[in-house]
Every structure is written in structure tokens, then in C-alpha cells.
Design brief:
Number of strands: 0
Radius of gyration: 22 Å
Shape: flat
Number of helices: 8
């Protein structure tokens, strides 16, 4: 019980230190997800109410647009995911670049694994909780306006799972970059190297194949 309470207390203290990250995440998802969803639904409702007869093509187009917005194809949420992962990864472990902060935290009688787990899990929650809250808001908006279907529900949950996995990958690479470097600027550059490494390798491979391996 003591260990569990200690873990929760450490999480609470870490969240206080990263309150600005929580506010940015919540605000970003609210603006790019809930607000845009409400605007789009209002536009779709206006279109449907202004057609004289039932038009199956219009309804099918509206359903495709909703699925595209709430699904993994939403570019705004993908960009938000990437930015949030980088910010949470770099800010959560930036204390490693300060000798005083490291000495202070490591003087606490808590195992290093637990300290790492607290910061890592909080970084995930800063993304997952605002995302889930605003996804529920979108479901409510769609349901009130009669656009909620089983397909929309499943697509939204699928997007949540895919984006969370995408976030976890970028977030973990950002943390590795922080641990391998000495200051926040170099950490940012190091994270960029990790993110672009695969693309660079494939580009080199394609260049070799085009230039030297024609057969």
C-alpha cells in the first residue's frame, strides 16, 4: 500500500511540474478535434437541411467525411500527436541536463526505475487523457446531430489506438535522444536524427538501386 501511494504521490508531483504541457495538450485537442468537429457537423447539417429531397449521394459523402475526420486519416491529429510526443519527451526528462536537478531527484529514496516509470507514464497520460476526453465530446456532438453510427464509433477507437501507438514511438525516441545528449537543443536535433534515420536509409537504398543495380 505504501509503495502504491508513493507512486501516485510521485505522479502527482510530476504532473504539477508539467502542468503547462497538460494545458497545451488539452487546448490543442479541443481546438483541433472538438471545435472543428462541431463546425463540420454544423456545415453538414446545413447541407442536408437545404436539399429538397433525400439524396443518398449527399448522405454517403457526409458519412465519408465524418469517418475521414475521426479516423486515422486526420492529418491535424497526426501533427498534434507528433508535436505533443516531442514536447512531452523532451520536457519530461530535461532535468537530466541539470546537475542540481539530477542530484535532487536521485537523492530521493526511490528506485531509479520507479522515477523513470512515473515520468514516462505521465507523459503518456498527458496525451491519452485529453485525446479520449475530446473524442468523447466528438461522439456526443455526432450523436446529438444524428451522425453517430457503429462504423463511426469503431473508426474513432481505431484512430485512437493507432495514434496512441504512433505517439508512444515518437515519445520514446525523444526520451532516448534526451538521455544520449547534454542539452535541450542537442536533444531536439538528436530526436530529429532518430525520426529521419529510416527515411534516409531508404533514400540511400533507392539511390543505389537506381544508379548501380539496374539489373
Amino acid at each position: 500500500m505504501t509503495s502504491k501511494n508513493l507512486f501516485l504521490k510521485l505522479q502527482k508531483e510530476d504532473m504539477k511540474r508539467r502542468i503547462w504541457s497538460i494545458v497545451l495538450s488539452m487546448l490543442g485537442f479541443f481546438l483541433l478535434y472538438t471545435v472543428i468537429c462541431a463546425m463540420e457537423v454544423s456545415n453538414y447539417t446545413y447541407r442536408i437541411n437545404n436539399i429538397s429531397i433525400y439524396d443518398y449521394n449527399v448522405m454517403e459523402w457526409v458519412n465519408k467525411q465524418i469517418i475521414r475526420f475521426i479516423g486515422p486519416a486526420n492529418e491535424l491529429v497526426a501533427i498534434m500527436t507528433m508535436i505533443c510526443a516531442v514536447i512531452c519527451g523532451l520536457s519530461g526528462f530535461s532535468y537530466l541536463h541539470s546537475k542540481k536537478k539530477v542530484d535532487l531527484l536521485h537523492s530521493v529514496p526511490v528506485r531509479r526505475e520507479k522515477l523513470f516509470a512515473v515520468t514516462y507514464i505521465n507523459g503518456l497520460l498527458i496525451y491519452i487523457v485529453p485525446y479520449m476526453i475530446n473524442l468523447i465530446f466528438c461522439y456526443i456532438i455526432l450523436g446529438v446531430n444524428g451522425f453517430m453510427t457503429g462504423e463511426v464509433l469503431l473508426t474513432g477507437l481505431t484512430a485512437f489506438g493507432v495514434n496512441t501507438l504512433y505517439y508512444s514511438l515518437i515519445y520514446t525516441l525523444a526520451i532516448i535522444a534526451v538521455m544520449l545528449t547534454g542539452n535541450i537543443v542537442v536533444s531536439f536535433l538528436g530526436a530529429g536524427v532518430f525520426y529521419g534515420y529510416g527515411s534516409i536509409i531508404f533514400a540511400i537504398k533507392d539511390t543505389y538501386f537506381d544508379e548501380f543495380f539496374m539489373t
